[in-house]
Amino acid sequence: MKKRKKRPYLWFMLPGFIFYAIFVVYPIISAGQLSLYHWNGIGEKVFVGIQNYVDLFSDEQLMGEMFNALKNSLTIFALTVLIQIPVQLIMAYIIFSKSKGSNVLQVAIFSPQFISTPVIVFIFTLLFDGNVGVVNKVMEMIGLGEYTRSWLGIPELGIYIIWAMITWAGIGVGMMYFISAMKMMGADCLESAYLEGAGFWKRLWYIILPQVKMTIVNIILIGYIFSMTVFDYSYIMGGGASGGTNGSIDVMALFFYRMAFGDNNPLGGKISTNSVGMGTTVACVLFAMIFVVALIQILITGRRRKDNA
């Protein structure tokens, strides 16, 4: 008989596994179960099967609010991918290359990460306020006074202002990921490119980018998860009632909050008799959206590692 191999490392993994099972796996399974019930969190639970999901995707008002929130969340994600991530990559490259003033730039970019969300919202309120806002004052100074607006009162601009807050506060985080990825690269290829006459931007395009592809994929995934789960900016700016004027800054996490805890959710004025049931249903739909994208990212990463093996 073959002796069973001892695996002492399993005992070191066990506490983390138990912790993960209690605080991650169990809540996910519990939420899935609750989404199958009609329940307000206090009274008796009534099993309704998939009726909550049917109501969510068939009720005109519920579906309209959910797709509006989803559109706004995807708008934040699209702006993050098209603008924020390229800017993060360029700033990381400037700092990695130790250009003049790069240390000051690094501190200036990363420091907003330590400012609380309410303070950030207050700062942007002062910037875009129609009466005392800095943006309008600057426009008046440079002769563009006719274009001044009460920017915070324009619904079409609401989600873009939310994205601007998010970007200003968190752009340094992705930048640090890119700097770390660049520091793990071999210096030989950059030195060779420099000796061959490749300029600053050519080295970025032909040397840096190919070697940080997987970091870009990971940052895109993080950006997607954050876009789907961001809550505090929209809540502070527009409150939990409706997500701003005409739902202009409503996002998926705020929509979930309104279903589960809002005093005037679409289910019936005050907190409805099915607030927990419908709220967990929205949470499960949101989880599925994130899980599918994360699974695709894992498959891409695994295939990439096999190709490099």
Automatic annotation (TrEMBL):
Compartment(s): Cell membrane
Record InterPro entries: MetI-like, MetI-like_sf, UgpAE/MalFG_permease
CDD domains found in the cross-reference section: TM_PBP2
UniProt similarity note: Belongs to the binding-protein-dependent transport system permease family.
Protein name as it appears in the record: Sugar ABC transporter permease
Species annotation: Candidatus Limivivens merdigallinarum
GO terms, biological process: transmembrane transport
UniProt cross-references to PANTHER family, sorted A to Z: BLL4140 PROTEIN (PTHR43227), DIACETYLCHITOBIOSE UPTAKE SYSTEM PERMEASE PROTEIN DASB (PTHR43227:SF8)
Ranges where the ABC transmembrane type-1 domain occurs: 70-297
UniProt keyword list: Cell membrane, Membrane, Transmembrane, Transmembrane helix, Transport
Membrane-traversing stretches: 9-29, 74-96, 108-128, 157-179, 204-226, 276-300
Record's bilayer topology term: Multi-pass membrane protein
Lineage of the organism: Bacteria, Bacillati, Bacillota, Clostridia, Lachnospirales
One GO term describing the cellular component: plasma membrane
SUPFAM superfamilies per UniProt: MetI-like (SSF161098)
